[in-house]
Structure formats: structure tokens, C-alpha cells
Design a protein that fits this description.
oxidoreductase; metal-binding; branched-chain amino acid biosynthesis; 43% helix; binds adenosine-5'-triphosphate; ten-stranded mixed sheet; globular; 12 helices; alpha/beta; two-stranded antiparallel ribbon; binds magnesium ion; Isopropylmalate_DH
Length: 350
């Protein structure tokens, strides 16, 4: 069966890194048995220009019908004065697809250790994933109120919402090093106390996975002091928002990090964590790794195409080890030359 992938290139560096990522995918697929078809749709600013809407009906339908969705990046100054913001499209597609889990790998490849703000001996070998609950918690809870003399935000979690994100995290841990850390503030918050109770229940179904709990304040220190401690971190929306940016920082560049947003049913959406980088668009400086890593995450998680993903990973590591990297990683390669170097190594390994 051939996979159908919806492709949303977006704005500024979006189309540049999408083109790079798809070229790498084509090369790796040709050497393995992965077959797929691509359908490209306008999204974000590009869609506003074409149709007046950031998420046109045809784009949403195409995304819903696909087996997986690849998004590069959207938004930028061109649409500052537009009646609708490109980012409104992102919120709308997340909502329409019920994307409840945001999965962010934090991996520091040996060649990138010198880019990290942390000491090499601390960061070397870092390889963990944050599984963040994306559609509940304090960002959405009612009541909300903003008055002159007071304001209210409400953190609400249903047991079912907690259970499904925990299950996603435990299942992921089973494919990795079998270690889950649940991050909460259970000494203070009722929602965190419920998370702990439900974790005890869910954990019973995964006897091969070790579980520990960390308060979010302690966890944020440990990400800096001992990042190799972690395998899979599962946490609620607000804590996950903060911790995943902290985790991105220790890798040394925004330009390498992918993410998956997973739905209750239906396709996952894979995208770099960075924005559309208007400051470097058109200069050839965009790092394609965040898009390439989004594609390998898709190959593994949506299509179990492990061999195809491993081909890309090996070629990428060899390219970095040869010192071929874009300026954000301290090199002088362009988006194109780095992409070509990876493709050559995929072909050479064949
Ligand atoms: P957003 O609000 O969409 O998150 P932002 O203003 O936070 O956008 P980004 O677009 O994420 O900014 O970019 C932040 C900085 O990181 C910019 O200087 C940008 O050039 C750089 N950057 C982001 N992605 C890449 C990439 N793939 N390669 C190189 N540099 C990048
Ligand atoms: Mg940003």
C-alpha cells in the first residue's frame, strides 16, 4: 500500500526546506521499498494570497484524507496587516484534526555537541522525547477572565484526556529505553495529583516501562544538569510548552528539531519547531535538518518505515561528521549543498 502525504510548504523558508526534505525522502525511498504519493496544498500566508483564507477548505480536506501531513513553516511580516493571520490556520487545523499530543525529540548528535551551550561531557548522548498534552489544561480551561483588578485562568483535566496522553507516552517508551518521567507539580496542584493517580493505573499495563515523577521545577533543572537522565517525558500543556523550548535550547540550534502532533484518530502532522525565519529566506542559509528530521519521524511513527528512516539518519550523521553544515550550526554549507551532500551519502550507502 502506498502512503499518501499531504504537503504544506507554507511561507518564507518553508518551501525551501520542504523542497530539501522531499528530495532526501525521494532518494531514501528509491533505495528501500517505501512508496508514497505527495499532494501539495496552500496553507498559511501562501493560502491567504491564493484564496484569502489561511486554511482553505481543500487544504483541510486534503489533510484529513492523507495518511500523514508534512508542514514546513508559516507566517511572517508580509501578512502583518492581513485581516486573517496565517497562524489562525495552524490553530484551526490542530483543532479540526484533534491533535492532542505534541511529540518533540531532543537529540544531540555527536557532531553537534560543540553547538550546545552545555558542557560536552554533560550533553553528549542526550536523546529524549517530550510528550506534551496539547489541547487541554490552563490554555483552554473555563472560567477565564481578565478584569482591571483581577484575572482568572483555570487548569482543567478530564481523566480521559490524561489517560490518552499517558498511553501515547508509554507506548513510545516501549520503542525506546523503557523509561517514562511524568512531570507535574503534585505538591501543589490538584490536576497534578490526578495525573499521578492515573499514571499508577496506566503504568500497570506497561510492566516493562520504569516510571518516575519529577516536579516541574526540579525537571527544568535536571534538563540542564543531567539531560541524559531522560528517555520519555510526559507532561501537561503549560509545563510542556516551557520544557520543550528549554530542551530545544540545549541542542544549540532551532534549525534541527522536528515535532509530531498526533490526533485521536486520523493523520499526524509533522513540522519543524521553528518559524518561517523571514530574516534568512531566499539567502540559502536555511538549515534543512528540522524538515529532514520531521520526515524521518513521520517515516517511523506513521509508516513504520524504519529502514528508510535509518538510511536518512546515517547519511545525515555522516554529512555532519564531514563538517558539512549550514551557518546556524557553524558551517558554511547552503540549504542546497547540505541537501545534496546527504543525498550523495544515501546513494553511496546503497
Ligand atoms: P515564530 O513566531 O513563527 O515562532 P520566530 O520569530 O520565533 O517565529 P523563527 O522563525 O523560529 O522565529 O526564527 C528564530 C530565529 O532562528 C531566526 O533568526 C531564524 O533565522 C532562525 N532559524 C529558524 N529556523 C531556522 C532554520 N531552519 N535554519 C536556520 N536558522 C533558522
Ligand atoms: Mg517562535
Amino acid at each position: 500500500m502506498s502512503a499518501t502525504i499531504a504537503v504544506l510548504p507554507g511561507d518564507y523558508i518553508g518551501p525551501e526546506i520542504m523542497q530539501a526534505g522531499l528530495a532526501v525522502l525521494a532518494a531514501a525511498a528509491a533505495t528501500t521499498d517505501f512508496t508514497y504519493s505527495l499532494k501539495t496544498y496552500p496553507f498559511g500566508g501562501a493560502a491567504i494570497d491564493a484564496t484569502g483564507e489561511p486554511l482553505p477548505e481543500a487544504t483541510l480536506k486534503g489533510a484529513q484524507a492523507a495518511d500523514a501531513i508534512l508542514l514546513a513553516a508559516i507566517g511572517g511580516p508580509k501578512w502583518d496587516a492581513a485581516p486573517q493571520r496565517p497562524e489562525a490556520g495552524l490553530l484551526a487545523i490542530r483543532k479540526a484534526l484533534g491533535l492532542f499530543a505534541n511529540i518533540r525529540p531532543t537529540q544531540v548528535l555527536p557532531a553537534l555537541v560543540p553547538r550546545s551551550p552545555l558542557k560536552a561531557e554533560l550533553v553528549n548522548g542526550t536523546d529524549f522525547v517530550i510528550v506534551r498534552e496539547l489541547i487541554g489544561g490552563i490554555y483552554f480551561g473555563q472560567p477565564r477572565e481578565l478584569a482591571a483588578d483581577h484575572a482568572i485562568d483555570t487548569m482543567v483535566y478530564q481523566a480521559s484526556e490524561i489517560q490518552r496522553i499517558l498511553q501515547a507516552g508509554f507506548e513510545l517508551a516501549q520503542t525506546r529505553r523503557h523509561h517514562v518521567t511524568v512531570v507535574d507539580k503534585a505538591n501543589v496542584l490538584a490536576t497534578s495529583k490526578l495525573w499521578r493517580r492515573i499514571t499508577e493505573k496506566v503504568a500497570a499495563a506497561y510492566p516493562d516501562v520504569t516510571v518516575d515523577f519529577e516536579y516541574v521545577d526540579a525537571a527544568s533543572m535536571k534538563i540542564i544538569q543531567q539531560p541524559t537522565h531522560f528517555d520519555v517525558i510526559i507532561t501537561e500543556n503549560l509545563f510542556g510548552d516551557i520544557l520543550s523550548d528549554e530542551a530545544a535550547t540545549i541542542t544549540g540550534s532551532l534549525g534541527t528539531i522536528p515535532s509530531e502532533s498526533r490526533g485521536i484518530s486520523g493523520p499526524s502532522l509533522y513540522e519543524p519547531i521553528h518559524g518561517s525565519a523571514p530574516d534568512i529566506a531566499g539567502t540559502g542559509q536555511a538549515d534543512p535538518l528540522s524538515m529532514i528530521n520531521s520526515i524521518t519521524l513521520m517515516l517511523r511513527n506513521s509508516f513504520q518505515a524504519t529502514a528508510t528512516a535509518a538510511k536518512i539518519d546515517q547519511a545525515l550523521a555522516a554529512t555532519l561528521a564531514a563538517g558539512i553544515m549550514t551557518p546556524d550550526l557553524g558551517g558554511s554549507a547552503t540549504t542546497d549543498s547540505m541537501t545534496q551532500a546527504i543525498i550523495e551519502r544515501i546513494k553511496a550507502a546503497d
